TrEMBL record:
Keywords: Signal. This is NAD(P)H:quinone oxidoreductase. It holds the Pfam family FMN_red. Residues 219-235 have a biased composition (Polar residues). PANTHER family: ENDORIBONUCLEASE L-PSP_CHORISMATE MUTASE-LIKE DOMAIN-CONTAINING PROTEIN, ENDORIBONUCLEASE-RELATED. InterPro entries: Endoribo_LPSP/chorism_mut-like (IPR013813), Flavodoxin/NO_synth (IPR008254), Flavoprotein-like_sf (IPR029039), FMN_Rdtase-like_dom (IPR005025), RutC-like_sf (IPR035959). It comes from the Bacteria. The lineage of its organism: Bacteria, Pseudomonadati, Bacteroidota, Flavobacteriia, Flavobacteriales. Residues 29-211 form the Flavodoxin-like domain. Residues 1-22 form the signal peptide. The keyword Signal applies. One of its GO terms (molecular function) is oxidoreductase activity. Residues 213-235 are annotated as: Disordered.
């Protein structure tokens, strides 16, 4: 009897622990900005404060890549890392910040979304919460600007979080404020001060509202995905992991010479790929010169790894669940002799392997600088995987 009670207690406790573990999973929020003079960045930091005030929330602030590398941007903003369009799908919620430019979003933000066709057609952002905040000058057209941003997010199927009457209880009515019911906004003041305390307060509330929505949606979707008799030792379905993370596996590139895309020997798959995307090399050129930025080289590396996974999928007869582990990745980078940051570039591939295959994606790795690579690709990856029979 004693044993039965003890077993029941242990069972109850372990279910409780599993529930706590499932619920305490962090909500990952991205704050993605363009900011030339730092106004949008100041609002972004208040959005972040609000978001992290909500339990279990982790925030990353990134900027969109600059479309004009010669443009002088605020030093603190320049230090932020640039996001890639593909990574958006990996977050549970996104706050987008842009300066108001002619009652619209800035050209840099617009150009970033111009690259979003693959994640749009893959419906990678569908159902994810998003919110918009903007820094303005005079404030002219700021509400229209936020709503124009909403159009793009609606086409991506995102759930838009507006601010409504948030922040009105603490609104200082003695000074003009940029606050809108659509999202936080700041207006410039003649003495150069700003954003105001009321504007920052609204930004904090907006950040918190986004984190709350993201947490709720994440919990709901993980509850739906959890079978009634959940067994934590069961490996997740890789095809679902890929889909949920919004990773778009392209068609496997076809060989252009007297070779095959992969060889399987003794349960090992051997694959080599370059940065082909839709039949063309993505961001060709030598890293360390003005031909290609580090962010572009990372995007090319990510694309190359996607191609590796596309070929691997073919080798597994279409089922990535057959992958037992990633054994080794070797990254060759087309660089100047002085270049030393190969490891940082290669992380774009390694991170993707781990994102897709979890523990099984962890691998041994080498990175090498090359004097040139085929078709002027910035990167080539050699990969070895072990698969089931
Ligand atoms: C090309 C351009 C167009 C602009 N259009 C507007 C506008 O329509 N309304 C407005 O209030 N401010 C406008 N501004 C001012 C910016 O919105 C303002 O300087 C903002 O604070 C910049 O944000 P940042 O500090 O994050 O770069 C414009 C600025 C530029 C450079």
């Amino acid at each position: 009897m004693k044993n039965i009670i003890l077993t029941c207690l242990l069972l109850l406790l372990s279910t409780g622990v599993q529930k706590v573990q499932a619920q305490s999973k962090e909500t990952n929020i991205l704050i993605l900005i363009h900011s030339q003079n730092g106004g949008t960045y100041t609002l972004a930091k208040a959005i972040s404060e609000g978001a992290v005030s909500y339990p279990d929330t982790k925030v990353t602030i990134k900027r969109v890549p600059s479309i004009n590398p010669k443009e002088k941007i605020n030093a603190a903003v320049a230090k932020l890392s640039a996001a890639t369009i593909e990574e958006l799908a990996g977050y549970d919620g996104i706050a987008f910040g842009s300066p108001v430019h002619f009652a619209n979003i800035s050209a840099d933000m617009s150009s970033f979304f111009g690259q979003s066709i693959p994640i749009w057609t893959a419906r990678s952002l569908e159902g994810k919460p998003a919110t918009v905040f903007m820094a303005a000058g005079s404030g002219a057209g700021r509400e229209a600007a936020i709503q124009s941003f909403w159009n793009t997010l609606a086409v991506h199927g995102m759930i838009i979080i507006p601010t409504g009457l948030m922040g009105t209880d603490k609104l200082d009515k003695t000074t003009p404020q940029g606050n809108t019911p659509f999202g936080a906004a700041s207006i410039a003041h003649a003495d150069g001060s700003g954003p105001t305390a009321s504007e920052l307060n609204l930004a904090r509330e907006q950040g918190k509202a986004l984190a709350k929505a993201a947490k709720g949606l994440k919990t709901q979707s993980s509850n739906q995905n959890t079978p009634a008799t959940s067994d934590k030792t069961i490996s997740p379905d890789i095809n679902t992991v890929v889909k949920d993370a919004g990773i778009v596996i392209p068609p496997a590139p076809k060989p252009v010479g007297n070779y095959v895309p992969f060889v399987i020997s003794d349960h090992k798959v051997y694959i080599n790929q370059v940065a082909l995307q839709d039949g063309k090399i993505l961001y060709p050129g030598k890293v360390g010169t003005t031909a290609i930025t580090e962010e572009q080289a990372k995007a090319a590396t990510y694309q190359t790894m996607l191609n590796v996974i596309a070929v691997l999928k073919e080798a597994c007869g279409g089922d990535l669940n057959k992958v037992k582990r990633c054994i080794q990745l070797t990254g060759y980078f087309n660089t100047t002799p002085e270049y030393t940051q190969h490891a940082g570039l290669m992380n774009a591939a390694s991170d993707l392997a781990v994102k897709v295959f979890g523990e099984k994606g962890k691998h041994a790795r080498a990175t090498i600088g090359a004097v040139s690579l085929p078709v002027n690709s910035a990167v080539e990856i050699q990969a070895i995987f072990e698969i089931e029979e």
